[in-house]
Amino acid sequence: MRQSILCLLVILFTVASVEAKVKYPGSKTYAYRYYLNNKQGGKYTLDKPSRFLSIKSLERRKRQGLQIDSTDLPIPESIISRFRVKGAHVLGTSRWNNTILVSSTDSTLLKLLAQLPCVKEARMVFQSPDSLDEPYSAIRPRFHDQFNRWDTLRGDPMGMSRTQIEMLGGDRLHDLNLRGKDITIAILDGGFQNADRLQCFANTRIVGEHDFVNPATEGRLYGGIDHGTKVLSVLAAEAPEVMIGTAPDANYWLLRCEDCCTEMPIEEDYWTMAAEFADSVGVDIINSSLGYNEYDNRMGSYHIKDLDGQTAMISHSASLLAQKGIILCNSAGNSGMGSWKKITVPADAFDIITVGAINQEGMNAPFSSIGPTQDGRVKPDVVALGSGTTLISGRGTLIHDMGTSFSTPIVCGLVACLWQSLREKTALEIIKLVRESSSQYETPDNIFGYGLPDFWKAYTTGKGDGKRKK
Fold first, then answer.
1. pLDDT digits (tens, 9 = 90+) for 407-426
2. Are strands 382-392 and 353-359 parallel, antiparallel or unpaired?
3. CA 68 to chain centre
4. Which residues of 102-125 are buried (b: 16+ CB within 10 A; e: fewer)?
5. Sheet holding 398-402, edge to edge
6. CA 114 from chain center: how many Å?
7. pLDDT value for 150
8. What is the pLDDT of residue 470?
9. Residue 14 CB: number of other CB atoms within 10 A?
10. What is the 3-class SS of 224-288, one letter each residue?
């Protein structure tokens, strides 16, 4: 009898699980990434970069002595127009990878487009599933407009965030009023629930936002999930005696490039489009708490051998950022306790700051992904408090959450504070300073990387270098 009841419960649970799924909205859809042979025939030229890059983007390059090159040139409209046929929709392009992203309900049509003379290679990067566990929702939950009294540390402006900032010497930068002023940070994430309404962001300089997953519903990035809101709070929250972000005076672009409903290679295209957009509008630093290694139905999933900073499209894109004068702070990933264990892409990219996680005792967080890259580079680069990080949820509550997603913005914000004081330095020079200031720079390993960065040491070293140069 007892066994029959257990069987019945299992059946009911299974049925309930099946019923919980919802039909994927719309018709069956596919998307292809087309790699092009060249960019010939475009109206843009390298001698007139102001026609396709903003003044801020050009000034960033000029300040760092960087040249405009062919990767900066947009895909010519004459080529894009060949893909604008009936039944096909151009979702976007990548000038850095020379690719075009096209969707259609007709997979045969997409295969025919692959035969165009301008196409070197074509890959299917998205196939809509039949059903979803739950649909993306733009519905905004209610949120708290004030914090609980037990979340407040009277007389301490940093409140509950003091530990995560002090661990990296960031409090001493804040004492000098280095809080990210005049630095622009782009957050690449999956949703920023209520970030436009929470009181802790009332003074945050959000200069713009864009949704690369579904541009037609631009305002929906403030609904949906709150992962991006949590990240933003670690960077920009200003709630005295409750918590302070690491760079509350910086400017912010909020860019949605993560599709929360599926996990497919197309998200590398979205990420790349967001990174190129960030470049074009003059962003200085990108915070990306995203990483990939296994996709739904194993469509384009990676192997350990692919962690070389170039194989994955997203890693190839990330490896170009420092050459454009941008610093990328990217999460190492949370695969440390799983079968994969290693960092995820684009954490394997060249010339970025990959961030792992530790706890308050300075011990490794077991979920934090490990290195090195396949070609032997140290990863992660540094670590910060990710078990657990003080942050604010999309409901406006102070919480402590775990993940390299949240150790990353601690570092990112302090990079902004450091660069604010050392504007004459290049992206590569700042990355080098951060690594060299870290606790085990001389003896790096595959778990902590170069260790816990000391931003005060990086600041004093940077200032010392400046004096010697004079």
1. 999 999 999 999 999 999 99
2. parallel
3. 24
4. bbbeeeebbeebbeeebbeebebb
5. 205-211, 251-256, 184-189, 285-288, 327-331, 353-359, 382-392, 398-402
6. 30
7. 73
8. 45
9. 10
10. CCCHHHHHHHHHHCEECCCEECCCCCCEEEEEECCCCCCCCCHHHHHHHHHHHHHHHCCCCEEEE
Ranges under pLDDT 70 in the chain: 1-20, 134-138, 217-219, 466-470
What pLDDT sits at residue 218?
A: 58
Residues in the chain: 470
| Token duo for residue 292 | 């990939």
Q: What is the pLDDT of residues 304-322, one digit of tens each?
A: 999 999 999 999 999 999 9
356 by DSSP, 3-state: which? strand
DSSP 150-219: GG--TT-TTBTTHHHHHTTTHHHHHHTT-S-TT-EEEEEES--TTTTT-GGGTT-EEEEEEESS-GGGGG
Helix (H, G, I), strand (E, B) or coil at 119: strand
Under DSSP, the state recorded for 150 is: G
Q: Report how far residue 435's alpha carbon sits from residue 312's, in angstroms, rounded to the nearest whole number.
A: 24
- Residue 412: name the closest of 328, 301, 343 by CA: 328
User: How far apart are the two ends of the chain, measured CA to CA in Å?
Assistant: 87
How crowded is the C-beta side of 436, counted as CA atoms within 13 Å?
12
Q: Residue 142: which of 207, 194, 208 has the closest Cα?
A: 194
Residues 6, 180: Cα–Cα separation, whole Å: 58
Q: Cα separation of 292 and 219, whole Å?
A: 26
pLDDT at 375: 96
Give the relative orientation of helices 455-469 and 404-421 as an angle to the nearest 10 degrees.
30
- How far, CA to CA in Å, does 234 sit from each of 112, 229, 315, 350, 392? 47, 9, 25, 25, 8
Q: For the chain, which residues make up each domain, given as ranges?
A: 30-131, 149-461
d(C-alpha 165, C-alpha 413), whole Å: 10
The CATH-assigned architecture of domain 149-461 is 3-Layer(aba) Sandwich (3.40)
Look at phi and psi of residue 441 and say left if phi exceeds 0, alpha if psi is from -120 to 50, else beta. alpha
Select from 3.10.450, 3.30.499, 3.40.50, 3.30.70 the CATH code of 30-131.
Answer: 3.30.70
Q: Rounded to whole angstroms, how far apart are CA atoms 346 and 255?
A: 17
Q: What is the pLDDT of residues 58-94, one digit of tens each?
A: 999 999 999 999 999 999 999 999 999 999 999 999 9
- How far, in Å, CA of 109 to CA of 85, rounded? 9
Task: With both helix axes pointing from N to C terminus, report the angle between 404-421 and 427-436 in degrees, rounded to the nearest 10.
Answer: 110
Q: Quickly tell me which residue has 């990086």 as its tokens.
A: 458
